[in-house]
User: Fold this.
Amino acid sequence: MNYRNMIVCLDDSAHSAKRLQFALELARRNGAHLTGLHLSYMPQTPYLAYDGVEPLFIRLEAELDKRQSAAREGFEAAASAAGVSTGWLAARSVDMEAIIAFARVSDLIIAGQPDPADTATYIGEGFPGRFLLGVARPVLFTPFANPLKASFDSIIVAWNGSREATRALRDAMPLLHAAARVTVLTVRAENWLGAGAVPLPDIAAYLERHGIVADVLENITHEDAGEWLLARAENMDMPADLIVAGGYGHSRLSELVLGGVTRTLLHEMNVPVLLSH
Assistant:
């Protein structure tokens, strides 16, 4: 199994060009078709009812069209230089249902971690979580703070035996096959809810039958599980350059109230994180 149809989410931020180069290289390595999905924030139209607001929306729409045309030119030039087959779609944040429906016919989606210091990364309140929950495809989130490379030599798989963790493991198979080292880490922590029995021998055997020899380690921690995973990614003898995890493994309301693992990974990632729901 390889990723044959990929999507990269682009915007007008300073980080978008770096994410594009990352996605082009990943697409090239997989022989994949890459669609550039340029997203712009657009407020909801009910505000047009207020006097004097409609001209502002007309000017905003024209400005967004101009930015997206420029983004498309840059995208196509970079794709041509990389020799990657591509497509293009420009959309507004108010078209979220259509965006999610389009993204469902892909093997892998690459999206950026929102940067609080750069408003151009803002696509709407809670966009990363809403997108991940709706799209039913693996989403590889890239951090805004660190350099990116499209090859992952050392990968951590966060494992708790859940449906979401199982799906993430399967979705990450093409990357796991190419890695020099795969480490499956189980985490027992109070805020990792719903974790049942973890069949460590079974997961090791499953991976081995797919040609992947993995280190499988069981851990007990009293720390926030997401923060612990990020710290381990940095502190292993061969630091991880990708974390694979199930996303929103229980009620999203509980995630928001308790500060769940998914939210920690999205907000504080120091390496790319592949999440599946």
User: Anything to note?
Assistant: Confidence is low (pLDDT under 50) at residues 191-195, 251-259. The longest strand covers residues 33-40.
